[in-house]
Structures are given as C-alpha cells and as structure tokens.
Amino acid sequence: MNRAEFDLWAQRETDAVESALQAWVPAAAPAGLGVAMRYGVLDGGKRVRPLLVLAAAQAVDGLREAALRAACAVELIHAYSLIHDDMPCMDNDVLRRGKPTVHVQFGEAQAMLAGDAMQALAFEVLTPQQDADVPAALQARLCSLLARSAGHAGMAGGQAIDLASIGKPLDEHALRDMHHRKTGALLQASVLMGAACGEVSAAQWAALTEYGDAIGLAFQVVDDILDVTQASETLGKTAGKDIDNNKPTYVTVLGLDAARRHAQALRVTAQAALVRSGLPHAGWLSLLADKVVDRDS
Amino acid sequence: MNRAEFDLWAQRETDAVESALQAWVPAAAPAGLGVAMRYGVLDGGKRVRPLLVLAAAQAVDGLREAALRAACAVELIHAYSLIHDDMPCMDNDVLRRGKPTVHVQFGEAQAMLAGDAMQALAFEVLTPQQDADVPAALQARLCSLLARSAGHAGMAGGQAIDLASIGKPLDEHALRDMHHRKTGALLQASVLMGAACGEVSAAQWAALTEYGDAIGLAFQVVDDILDVTQASETLGKTAGKDIDNNKPTYVTVLGLDAARRHAQALRVTAQAALVRSGLPHAGWLSLLADKVVDRDS
C-alpha cells in the first residue's frame, strides 16, 4: 500500500462517512436544531477519527455496517465537543473549519442544544434497533467504549483539566495526562471501536490500545506545533490561540524542536505496536500514523 | 397497595437510587468536574423518573440490576438537562432544588462540562461491560431508548422549540408537541426502559407507551399549574418564571381551571392504559400517576 492508494482509500471512506452523516443527522429536527447540528458536523474536518475506526475495522476484517456507524458516532462526539469548546464560556472562538463557529452562526443556546443533541445522536447511531446488521452485544460494546472515552475519565475530564490549567505551569506529566484524556481518549477509542467490529486476540487488543495511545498523543503534540507554525487560513481555525489564552502546550513545555522529536518518537511507538499486533491488514492504520504526524493542518 | 405503602416503597427506592448515584458519579473526576457533577445530581430532586423506571420494572418482574442502572441513567440525563437549561444563554436561572444552580456555584464552563460528562455517564452506567447481571442485548436496548428520548426527536428537540417559542403564541397542539418532546419523551422512556427489563407482550408495551405518554404530559401540565400557584420556596426553583420569560404554558393557553381538568383527564387516561395492560403488579405505576397529578411541588 502506497500513499496514493491511501489517499484514494481515505477519500472513498470520507465520502462514505459524509453520506452516512447526511442521512443520520436530521435536517428535520425541530426549530432549526437540525440545521445547527448539520452545520456543526457535515462538510468539514479532517475526519481523522472516522478514518481510524474504519482502518482498524479493516485491519480486523470487521463488520462494515457496525464500523460505519462507529465512525459516524465518534465524529458526532468530536464535533459536539468542538461546538461546546468554542462557546464564549470556554475558548470563545469564532472560526472553525474555515467557517463561523456554531454559536456565532446560530446563537449560544442553539449551539449548546445542538451539541447536546449530537452526543445523544452518537448513541442513537450505535444502537439501530431495527437493524439486524449490528449484533446487540456489539452495539453495547461500542456504546461502552464511546461513553467512557467521551465522559469524565476521558474527553470531558480532559477539558476540565484544560480549563483549570489556564495560566498555570504544567509539567510534561500533567500535560500528558490532560491530553491523554482530552484528545487521546477519543482517538484511542476510535481505534478500539473499529477493532471491536471484528475478532481480535487479547494481545492484538493490547497492541492496538498502545497504537491508539501513541497516535492520540502524537495528534495533540502536532496540533500544538501547528498552532504556532501555521496561519489561521491553513488550519481553518484561529492559530496561536493557545498562546493567546496562556494555555500550556507541548511547545511551551518542551520547546518546538523537542516537541517535533517527541511526535516522531510517538510515530515509531505506534508503528512498532502495529507490527507487534501481527494483523495482516493494518496498512491503513500504519499510513494514518504517518498522516497524523506529517500533516500540515 | 395503599398510599402509606407507596410512600415506604418510594422512599426505599429513592434511597437505592441515591446510593447507586453516590457510587457511580465519580468524586474523583479531574479538576473539580466530579464535584460539579455530584452537586448537580445527588441529594435533590423528586426522582420521579427513577421511580417510574423501577415501578415499571416491578410491574413486569424485570431484572433489578438493569432497572437500577436505567433509573440512574435517566436521572443523569434529566439532571444534565437542568444544568444546561439553567445557564445564562438558556433560562438564566439561579435557584434549583433549593440551591444555587451549578453555573452559579462552579462557573459556566464547568457547568457545561459537568452536563456533558453526565450525559456520557448515563450511557456508561447502562453498559457495565464487566457485569454479567445485565445481558448485552438489554444494554443495547436501554441505550437505544435513552438516546432517542434525550436527543433531537425528544428532549433536546423540545428545548429547541421552547427556545424558539418565547414570546410567540402557541396553540394547544404546538404546546403539546413541544412538551411531548421536552418533558414527555424522557418520562415515557423511563416507563419503557423499566418495562424493557422484563418480558412484555406487544399489547402490554403499547399500553405502557400510552401510560407514559399520558403521565409525561400530565407532569408538564401540573408543572405549569404549580409555576403560577406555588411559591419558590415550595418548588425549590424560581416560581413564575415561565410567565416572566413570556413562555407559553398550559395555564396561559388553556386557563388555570381547564389546565386542572386536563391534568385529571390525563390521569384517567394513564390509569385506563394500566388496566388495559393487564399487568398484575402495576400498583406502583398507578400510584405514581396519582402522585404526578396530585403533587404540590
């Protein structure tokens, strides 16, 4: 598998996720709620998490319908977290994915409700009661993985630490703990939800857990690097805002060069874990690890 | 079963729910998040939804462990919705369950995160992967019912209509649609989640659906009545705020006397549905319907 094949695969899968989200995020939800939800999740974003789900599912020859639902569910959780994170009481940001943020476009109340409804929708998508394509035990397993990565021990917990750390010095350990939760938990869950769609041994599960942990952290290290090295128009969101908000980042804690070396080391860790998994079809996961580290936006 | 037995049962079950929430809502969640979550859900509220879950589970001889988890999950969803609903961008309320609201106590950002984490926690509680007491198929079914009642088609959708209707005249049909979603969906889901913990026929399911629909609406009609007839200290929340916020209510649309007659008619509908269900142990559900209509706070 080479990079060109990967790009083709990624485009095809991104299109599949987009179509599924188009179908599942309801335009008809009342009083403009559906419009705000669709604005917040459709037609934007790199879709890193859905691609991780689908690449992991492919690595374990997992059920396609389940994996596609899991891919959309993690993206809905990610998108809702961005909507809430951008609100005035949190990061107060006005630009996201190259567009005005949801609360700028629709007002704060609608933005909060849209985020709330998107979290619920993620669990709806995972539990298609009328659909025999996803076994009930897998539905429950996917809900369990997603809820634990999104909640107090994962993403929401990490955001609480983030909030409390503004203007405070954090050492690398504390910074790692914050990002392990805030960004890492959902990225890792994406890998594991994809893996849950097929059969894996305990050793393979452990290897994929380590892969997910490494790329989860790498993603945040690279985010912190891009925040200081790229312009807003490249990122599609406000650049330099962590510095402006006086937030500790890998760049402020380690310095730019050490942060770059750290990202490369995490890539090596992720690739080694994939090799150790012995999964024969882990090619897309391997190329995704490269993509996470090499991206420029 | 008489009223005194009911009160004993309700107290015992409320205590069981409180103990379970004490165990499941994590004090140790980072950066004060757990403290805010516990403040928002422990030691307060009438626990109407958990009691509906547990009464319905008893009516169908359902699995106790599953029903207790479902009871806590619906209360977590209800409590998170109150936290978000009270925020300045929504109802901007400062008093809830006789205490300062969560954003007054902990700040807006923490309140939003606490609500977000509580929604995720509801689905964690429903999916105890290490626990053999709740079959996986039931875990999936409970997640499905809860997600659909909390999301765009249910509670969040109803809140969006509520938001859009401020200062606008609504006819009874539109008001009913709003409340059917905003309050009714989660109350009805409480009944159905309890019922899902046991075996019910399609006819019994339909009867319980109608019961849940009637008491869901009755609950809101009575809420609207109490909003104009009771003082804040009795309600534990700000009285008269719907009028102050220029929101349409059953009292403003129907008038106080007609609203009272409507609540009584809904009680009759609920009781008739229970009789039609033929369930031999529906006594607590019957007394809960009375309680919902007769309550004074």
Structure overview:
Two copies of one chain form a homodimer. Chain A has a two-stranded antiparallel sheet. Chain A has a single domain, classed as Farnesyl Diphosphate Synthase (Orthogonal Bundle), CATH 1.10.600.10. In chain A, β1 and β2 form a beta hairpin. Helix content of chain A is 72%, strand content 1%. With 297 residues, chain A is mainly α. Chain A is built from 15 helices and two strands.
Estimated share of beta-strand residues of chain A:
under 5%
Which structural class do you get from the secondary structure elements of chain A? mainly alpha
By CATH, the topology of chain A is Farnesyl Diphosphate Synthase
Radius of gyration over C-alpha positions of chain A, nearest whole angstrom: 18 Å
CATH 4th-level superfamily of chain A:
Farnesyl Diphosphate Synthase
What's the number of domains of chain A?
A: 1
Please tell me the overall pLDDT of chain A.
Answer: 93
| Spatial order of the strands forming the largest sheet of chain A | 1-2
| Amino-to-carboxy terminus distance of chain A | 23 Å
Q: What does the main sheet of chain A amount to?
A: 2 strands, antiparallel
How many helical elements of chain A?
Answer: 15
CATH architecture designation of chain A: Orthogonal Bundle
Helix content of chain A: over 70%
Uncertain parts of chain A: none
Please trace the helix and strand order of chain A, writing H or E for each element. HHHHEEHHHHHHHHHHH
Number of strands of chain A: 2
Give the quaternary arrangement of the chains: homodimer
